[in-house]
Write a structure and sequence with these properties.
alpha+beta; three-stranded antiparallel β-sheet; 5 helices; four-stranded mixed β-sheet
Length: about 160
């Protein structure tokens, strides 16, 4: 299907990036004419490709969570995500599990709505999550306004 036909059908345009070798295991990646991201297989001058995948997942979910909570008129003051990716010991050393540890400061947000925003992102909105193999479990934890919240805890207390 041509780009014009996709646009007419309401589909999003094709995502395009260019990756340019910068010597060694270093590459600069980005949209033509846009900002670039350094990828470095050694991790010396930029993220490794796997770290970039984990960052993309955390960034994608975080964007959704901030937007979902803002639409509820409960803005986030701070959101931080620590990501751990477990990798296979075989070749390729692909991701086999991911854990996202959310820390959210948002006085107007209750645990139920924070949980719901994270769940909606991971199960419905985050295109990066949907692009990962389905056999890679993505789990998460939440600390909301300084208090740990176990996944499902807010719903279980209703």
């Amino acid at each position: 299907m041509s780009e014009a036909a996709r646009g007419a059908a309401g589909a999003k345009p094709v995502a395009r990036v260019r990756v340019a070798w910068q010597g060694g295991q270093r590459f600069d990646a980005g949209r033509p004419g846009g900002p670039t991201l350094r990828l470095d297989g050694t991790g010396e001058t930029g993220q490794s490709p796997v770290d970039a995948v984990l960052s993309a997942l955390a960034g994608c979910v975080s964007i959704d969570v901030v937007e979902i909570l803002a639409k509820r008129r409960t803005p986030v003051e701070r959101l931080d995500v620590a990501v751990e990716g477990e990798r296979s010991t075989g070749t390729p050393r692909r991701l086999v599990a991911v854990t996202l540890a959310f820390t959210i400061d948002a006085p107007a947000v209750d645990a139920l709505h924070a949980e719901r925003a994270i769940d909606l992102s991971l199960t419905k909105y985050c295109s990066v999550r949907d692009s990962l193999a389905r056999d890679i479990p993505v789990t998460w934890t939440l600390v909301l306004n300084g208090a740990p919240v176990a996944p499902g805890e807010a719903r279980a207390s209703l």
